[in-house]
Amino acid sequence: MSTPSRNSIQMPPAGSNLPTNVFSTPINGISSNGSEQDPFDVASALGSTSVSSAPQPRQRKFKSARLVGEYEKPWVDGPRDKKMKWERWIFWGFIFVGFLGGAAVCYFAYASVSNLDYCLILEDNFKEIDEKVWNYEIQRGGFGTGSFDWTTRDPKNAYVDEQGLHIVPTLTLETTDITPDQLLDNYVLNLTTAKTCTSKEIDMCSIRSNVTAGTIINPVRSARLNTKGKKTLRYGRVEVVAKMPKGNWLWPAIWMMPDAELYGDWPASGEIDIAESRGNHGDDYHDGRDSLISALHWGPISVADAFWRTSGKHNVRRRDYTQKFHTYGLEWNEEYLFTYIDSRLLQVFFIKWKKGHKNMWERGNFGATIVNQSALHDPWSQTGRANTPFDEHFYLILNVAVGGTNGFFKDGVGNKPWGDGSLSAPKEFWMAKDRWYPTWGEGDTRGLTVKSVKMWSLGKCKNGLDRDL
Asked: Domain GH16, which positions (predicted)?
């Protein structure tokens, strides 16, 4: 092998006093004397004698730089300290005031929740469907909402088990002898002839399917139970422990209607919606089953329903009302009405009757409303009460409707397969069965499950006993 050039980076120039670069890797691993060496042998590169014989530095004992004894502390004793003391006082003062303010808010919120006397008039844990308490409503006409279900007393649609009461919608073709062809054409359903219809209106009790007209037999059957004439309430509390159903276009409802329509046909005599929901998934339908709605319906005529002035909703995140049981409640008296979920502090809707308005006619501004070029008639003010029509006896209703043409399910939202204005809306709904039926939960999860119902009337019980239990 050849000797490394004097111009290489390993060797200093000729005549230079600079030492050889000991940190460089020897060329081809050959030392200056021609013998092979380990390119990583630093000791050889430096010279073994210099490494072993170099004097080792003496280790000095660690000495702390910490100050000892008395010395000045200008950051404590100087004028800046007074300012810092005030800053600390101001900071902790605001913290204290914040705690006081929070405590005051909590106290007044708690104090605002009334603690009135109530008398328990109904407690049903659903060991059976007690017909001393509950009525079946049987018809096929949609109850004024245009819903597509035919309500029955079939045990497949309403039954009890260890969980409580189940109200479950089923397909008509699965629970009757009606064939697919008959559902669409040339079949007469007459509940009056069958002596089962609970409505006095012919259209609510009978229908003939006709393929030309687009009318069909109700494609879905469900159930609707109420306490009319048996358990009613004029001021008091209601609590229903329930779990909502899962499935597109299902419409569960826990609500109340007047036992006697003292002020006229709906909505003149009022309606109280304690809890309503939609079975659609919240990702597919805004305000689906992750949303809970409460409202009052009232107005001198149906087209002037002012529910939008007296409604509220509560949405939950990353979960929905089909996943577990909740308590849906109502508290109602001459001063106020509110609905709540699980706790009276979690209110969905609240109204104080006299706040801002003398009566409901004034609250709705109906005096300035013209319908069909005519002024509206005031059915309420003559009572002199601020809460009329919500001053009469109401009964409780539990049901699961399917679809509808009253706008509860908005056109164009969530891939809705029918139009509210269509004369063949039920058929349009049915023809889209392959889209909505797979979304319905298995078994009773497609239904409203009610664990218990309690009703209390306002005031103490007579002789200290619960009334009529």
From this structure: 111-461
The answer to the question of residue 51 being in a domain is no
Task: Give the range of the structural domain holding residue 94, as residue numbers without chain letter.
Answer: 74-112
Both 293 and 144 in one domain: the answer is: yes
337/270 Cα distance (integer angstroms)? 13
Q: What are phi and psi of 136, to 5 degrees?
A: -90, 135
How, if at all, do strands 220-222 and 149-151 pair?
parallel
Spatial separation of the C-alpha atoms in residues 288 and 252, rounded to whole Å? 11
Is the pTM for the entire model greater than 0.85? no
**Can you tell me whether residue 257 is helix, strand or coil?**
strand
Residues 24-62 as b/e (b if ≥16 CB within 10 A, e otherwise) read: eebbeebeeeeeeeeeeeeebbeeeeeeeeeeeeeeeee
Same domain, 166 and 184: yes
Contacts of 125 (CB under 8 A, 6+ apart): 164, 451, 452
Query: Given the DSSP bridges, would you call strands 224-226 and 135-136 parallel, antiparallel or unpaired?
Result: antiparallel
Dihedral class, residue 142 (left if φ above 0, else alpha if ψ from -120 to 50, else beta):
left
Phi first, then psi, for residue 265 (nearest 5°) are -65, 160
Q: Is residue 296 within 8 Å of 270, Cβ to Cβ?
A: yes
Instruction: Tell me the pLDDT tens digit for each residue of 331-373.
Output: 999 999 999 999 999 999 999 999 999 999 999 999 998 888 8
Q: How far apart are the first and last CA of the chain?
A: 115
Q: How far apart are CA 54 and CA 41, in angstroms?
A: 18
**CA angle centred on 390, ends 385 and 391, rounded to 5°:** 55
Dihedral over Cα of 291, 292, 294, 297: its sign: positive
Distance CA 379, CA 281 (A): 41
